[in-house]
Amino acid sequence: MTKCKKKKRQDDFQKVKLKVGKTKPKAGNATNINFRTKGINLTEQLKKDANAPTTHRKLNIKDLLSQLHHYSGTVKQGALVGLRELLTLHPSELDQHLSSLLSEAAAVFTDKDPNVRMSATRLLRFIAQSVPAERTSPFFPLLSAHLSCAMTHIETGIQEDALKVLDVLLDHYPALLAARPALLLTNFLELISHRSTGGGARKGQEGKGRSWALSVNPNRNVTGQQWRLTVLFRLGRFLQAVVEERRGEEGVACVSGDMFSVLNGQGGANAPLELNWEELTYGKGGFQVFEHSGAMPTPHSTFKLRPETEPGAGVSEGLGTGEAVRGFASTLVPLLLDVWVEASASDRSKTDSAHLLTPDAMSLMYQVLSILQLLRKLAPQREHQDTLDAWFRSEYLGDFKQHFMKNFPYGNLDTPKQRRKTDPKRSKQAPTIPGQTVEPLALNVLLCQVMVSMVTLSQGEGPAQEPDAEWLMPLRGFVQETMSSGAKLSQRHLHTLLETVWRMVTTQRSRAVTEDLLQAVYVQYQQMNLNLQTRTLLLSFYSRLYLQEHNHTHIARSRVLSRWLAALPLQLSQLGHRNPALSDRLLLSIQAAASRGNKALLNSLRTHACKLYDPQEGSVVLLPAESQQRLVQLLYFLPVMSQGLLANLSRCCTAGRVSAGLAASLIRIIHLRSSLSGWSVGSQDATLRDVDYISFLFSTLTGFSSDELATLQEAGDESVLPPSPLSPLSLYPTPLEQFTHHWDVVEEVCHCLETLGSRSQCFDVLQNGICKNLMGLAVVPDSMAAGLLRAVARLLDLSFLPSEPLLRFLSRCCLSLLSLLLTLQQDTASENNHKREAVWGACVAALSSVPRLLRLVLQSLQVRDLCEEELPQLAQILSLLLQHTALCNQMLANATLLQRIIQDLTRYCRGESKEQWMTDLLYCYSVTMATHHGNLGLRDIY
Amino acid sequence: MSAPMEIVLSADSGGQLWNCAVLELHSGTNLLAYRGGNTSSRSLTVLNGEYILGAQLGKNFINVWEIQRKDQLQQKIVCPGIVTCLTASPNGLYLVAGIAEAIYLWEVSSGNLLAILSRHYQDLTCLRFTDDSSHFISGGKDNLALVWSLASVVQLDPSHTPEPRHVLSRHSLPITDIHCGLMGPQARVATASLDQTVKLWELSSGEMLLSVLFDVGIMSVTLDPCEYYLFCGGSDGGIFQVSLCSQSLSRDKTFQSDNEGNQVFKGHRNLVTCLSVSMDGTLLLSGSHDETIRLWDIQSKQSIRSINHKGPVTNALIIPAPANMFLPDSRPGIPLPRFSRHLNPSEHGEGVETGGVCLRLAPHTQAQRETYLEKADKLYSIMSAVTDKSVFGDGENTKVRVSELEEEVRTLKKVNKDLYDFSTQLLTKPI
Predict the structure, then answer these.
(1) Residue B286 has what pLDDT?
(2) Which DSSP string corresponds to A889-905?
(3) Where are the WD-type repeats located (chain B) (predicted)?
(4) Residue of B100, B185, B242 with shortest CB distance to A303
(5) What mean pLDDT is predicted for residues A756-760?
(6) Would the CB atoms of B244 and A290 count as touching at under 8 Å?
(7) Which uninterrupted H or E stretch holds A60?
């Protein structure tokens, strides 16, 4: 073996023998110099790339990113600052390099140099400000990995700065952060505590199985308390983000947090189809109501076979299920309690009274409580929340009572100055947190909310409720005092307080308590000058409470509530048109109460009805259409309709400030409430007398009040068509809009009158009404005349003979309308079409259904009295009537009259210009006669 | 003549001669007429194919006929108030009536009043069962329709007030009619209201699927068995047909505009109060306040037949013909017991909660058996009564108690005979 080695060595180091006279062999490392060199001239070094913008140091984005890998902290910081500069100057770079930017910036979260970390945070904030969440989402796993790496870093400085990074993310991407809460939550826990290893610590604890214990790191440059405060503050914000994320997912329906904002919280996931009959008939084809053609039930079905998710275990599962939340809470809550106990112990040493807290302690407690409150809201579903509340109660009620409730109404200890003097450096260094100054009111209110949530529904009142009552007493006292002190509360506090009151009222089934609490809220409600939001909040609190009354008799009997209800109609009428949104709210509550037949409300509604339905300044004409409809529907529930109210309503219908459709439904509702409609189930006393009802119908039919008619009689000639032999009444031409409105209303009234029962009696009533009220008029609105003719035609029974004066009046109306029709026909504007048709239809219907009317009209046509210009008009009227087939037979019955008129006409008319209308008339006449004779002839044959 | 498959059952509020008439669906021939009184609206119902029940108009009782005996009332069920609506469950086990604002639920086999539900705030207008009798829906003048699960309502725990499964609260005026489709708890429910809308709901989730706004108040509503169409009877006499699924993806919309207005059945002159569709979905029956019943062909929307009545029609429904109706010699399978007017009379007497549940397995096990728990309770109460008496010796009190107990015991059946002997021995010995 040694031999072998030797041999090898000899091979390696062979001795080169040099001999004289021979050329020296070249060494192995000799340089071969058989080459030539040439110079390359670079005309420009580092030519500026046209496409890559640079910083003022002429570095483009790639250079900067590569510099982030430099070992020197200064270079890295410079690069970060440069990046920020570059991105502000050229925002387009951000879009192109987002992925590399984020990954590189995130990598330096854990840098050792605090300056680098600070710059990285600034850069991140800058990026976050300009990039929306959906574009960051693909890189977010990376970001959060780096973040949790930083949060769990062994160096305290990095941990602290990680919280700042978290702040940035919470500010800009709360939803993304909340989407995967599991890992971050453990990180939070690790920041303020440590997991006790092994079973030793567990046995040491009082058998409660705690695996986490608070930890204090003496190396930090802030006190343990302040550190915890900062961590808890972030945790609170994070949980808030999670809660909001969840709320967004589930829609508003099942979240109790927004209890007052949604009044009728029925908004499910699939929005119902709202259709209109008109659209349905004339609009586009069919629609699909049932998804899967009804084969599968919607996921909102309340029939469930088993829970959707299996119970998970621990925090690692995230917060998706109730069990997971509970697991997390069972870790966190003891820690929170410990934090508070420590803080209060150190605080106690500074103050003599336990009620007063230093600002630090106060904000710490505030954070602790708000996290507790958020934990409650984390439960994914409503039913889970109840079980979670019950669990909280069973586990921690004792602790909470001991630690929080003992010194309940907390006050502010006003000694911050001293502390700053003693230790100015430290207080300067302490991280400034936005929510650090907490006012005692907020703290107390929050405490109320947290504690009240622990009260469970008592199954039966009895001794079981007693222990709760003992610690609820101060809470109740505080709430009452705060609300009833009359001071203005901010929106948020008020909301929290109202939720507290709500919880107390629904859980504490005692009438006295309810009364006191509601009274306190009422004091707030009665304040002047509340802004809209607050007002709406209070309003919806009460209305929700009222809607809940069915299973809480103590609420239903509350006197404050009924006083509130009774005041609503007055408020509505006083509000007028000033705030339609608030009026709508009020109306919703009124409608709900009215439909339940609440006595107090109905009485008050009755007294204020005339004001509400005033045709001039009542709410019914001032509010937008939707509220108008509610008001009209409200009429149904009125126990009694007085004469005055009906008069007002009739004016509302005719005045045109309410749409025709709504007026029609108003009339229909009144019709249903009258005893004549015949629709009533069970015992029901009629709300209005039949006399009043019929007079309502009649005045709606005429469409003009007696005052208006009286003023019309005295009006000058300029607004009114003058009377002439051809139009014995002078007509007041109503505007087209009013005419169509009145026409629609008339149709509805006629329908109501038709269904009243005996037609002849009904007509008798109508006849009397016309005779008494309208006969003496010299000026008649054309809409009224047409309406009357329409009603007469529709209502007349063959067996009933109308009285002579009525017929005479109607014939005058009819003749006037016919001559109006001629003037209308000259005006070819298409918008008059409807009016023309309506007038013509009314005349024809009346003339054909009442033969005597036609005869009277013809009799009143005295050719002698007419001037020459009117002759063609008369001829036109006659030919119109003759052309109409429905009237044909009746015209024939009056053939002698006709013949006389035509003879007169031919006698009186001279000159060639009139030939045209004359021949027209004669032609019509002869055709009518001929068909008649033809018919007769045919009849003769058979 | 072969027995008719489907019949029309109709009643009006003015007829003197008869209360409700039975017509053959296709020929319109009058088959039967049941005599006595008048029936109020939405309160005519057939119980188990063996009895016809109708609430008397304006009075506080329900007329009951055996279905084969048209001339004679079987009994009158006296109620605490005027019955506004009435319906029997399709399986014939329960009877539900709306009396003022409360719903009364009877068990047919025993006649016990099982529950009084007062969740409505105003008078009830309509009650409907699902076809599997698992739920019922009540509509009232307080704009609410409530969905009740029968199982949750029929419970023996008096401390727990039953809550409706769903509250359908989107109407803004009184509900006039309800129709419940097929498919049991997965059915769809149509509600009509005076607020001029008809709304379609899903029973399982309580969510609204569809709302159609009309020009007039809607007094009645029904769906055809396939739920292709929704028929809505208006207060002006028109019947509106809403197609619930676009059957053909027709692109020629111009053609559709030709038959515009074609979806209205025109003919009635007053409120259409009741609607019903035949089993095959081809015929529509409508009853109106203009005192006529009309039969329509759905496809062509023509009125096939119009039958005059003597007053506003209150009920008109198409039902499959019950087997017993045309066999005068038949007897109902179960005799109808006396319906009680008070809630759980026995329990009121004792005031103590019993843990037992009465199970009724089949119609022929009519004998009222008590559970062992109840028996044990009763025995215990008797024993304790004896000891109470012997200890306290309160003469009058014990006598009252004894008589009460004796009464109860007397009602026990043969099964309790030995128990009775034993207890009377016990009771009489110390005196």
Answers:
(1) 94
(2) HHHHHTHHHHHHHHHHH
(3) 117-152, 189-211, 265-306
(4) B185
(5) 78
(6) yes
(7) none
Is residue A880 within 8 A of residue A818, CB to CB? The reply is yes
Contact between residue B245 and residue A290 where contact means Cβ atoms under 8 Å apart: yes
Give the span between the Cα atoms of A890 and A928, in whole angstroms.
11
Confirm if A789 and A753 have CB atoms less than 8 A apart.
no
Q: Is B120 on the interface with A (CB under 8 A)?
A: no
**Taking residues A411-432, what's their average pLDDT?**
44
For residue B218, give the nearest of B137, B309, B297, B125 by alpha carbon.
B125
SS3 content of chain B, % helix, strand, coil (to 5): 20, 40, 45
Instruction: Please name the residue that has the structure tokens 């917060």.
Output: A319
Rounded CA-CA distance A121/A166 in Å is 9
Are B122 and A294 within 8 A, CB to CB? Answer: no
CA atoms within 13 A on the CB side of B28: 12
Q: Which residue has the tokens 């108030």?
A: B81
Q: What is the pLDDT of residue A726?
A: 75
Tens-place pLDDT, residues B127-170: 999 999 999 999 998 889 999 998 888 876 666 778 888 888 88
Residue B220, pLDDT score: 93
DSSP characters over A430-493: SPP-TT----HHHHHHHHHHHHHTTPPPPSS-SGGGHHHHHHHHHHHHHHHHHHHT-----HHH
Q: Reply yes or no on whether the pLDDT at A652 is more than 70.
A: yes
Backbone dihedral angles phi then psi of residue A380, each to the nearest 5 degrees: -65, -35
**Which of left, alpha, beta for A850 (phi over 0: left; psi -120 to 50: alpha)?**
beta
How high does pLDDT run on average in chain B?
Answer: 81
- The one-letter code for the residue type at B383 is M
Summarize the confidence of residues A360-386 as an average pLDDT: 75
* Tokens 């199954």 -> residue: A459
DSSP SS3 for A934: helix
Q: In 3D, which of A689, A709, A695, A581 has the Cα closest to residue A642?
A: A689
The pLDDT tens digits of the residues spanning A274-287 come to 777 777 666 555 56
B interface test, pick of A263, A277, A633, A638 with most B CB neighbours within 10 Å? A277
CA atoms of B312 and A913, how far apart (whole Å): 62
Closest-CA residue to A660 (of A690, A703, A612): A703
> What is the reported pLDDT for A2?
58
Please tell me the distance from the alpha carbon of residue B271 to that of residue B220, in angstroms, as a whole number: 9
Identify the helix (H) or strand (E) that includes residue A41.
none
Candidates B144, B178, B188, B209: best to mutate against A (most CBs of A within 10 A) is B209
- Pairwise CA distance, residues A656 & B228, whole Å: 40
- Whether A16 shows a pLDDT value over 50: the answer reads yes
pTM: 0.73
Q: CB neighbours (10 Å) of residue B29?
A: 11
Interface predicted TM-score of the whole assembly (ipTM), two decimals: 0.74
Q: Say whether B271 and A678 touch across the interface (CB within 8 A).
A: yes
Residue contact B122–A280, C-beta within 8 A: no
Cβ density class A160-175: b for 16+ within 10 Å, e for less: bbbbbbbbbbbebbbe
Longest dimension (CA), chain A: 169
Residue A843: other Cβ atoms inside 10 A: 29
Judged by a CB distance cut-off of 8 A, whether residue B215 touches chain A is yes
CB B168, CB B149: distance < 8 Å = no
Measured distance CA(A612)–CA(A594) in Å, rounded: 15
The torsion angles phi and psi of B178, rounded to 5 degrees, stand at -135, 140
The separation between CA A88 and the C-alpha centre of its own chain, rounded to angstroms, equals 39
Contacts 24+ apart (CB under 8 A), A61-66: A61/A86, A61/A93, A61/A97, A61/A101, A65/A97, A65/A100, A65/A101, A65/A104
Give A415's pLDDT tier (boundaries 50, 70, 90): very low
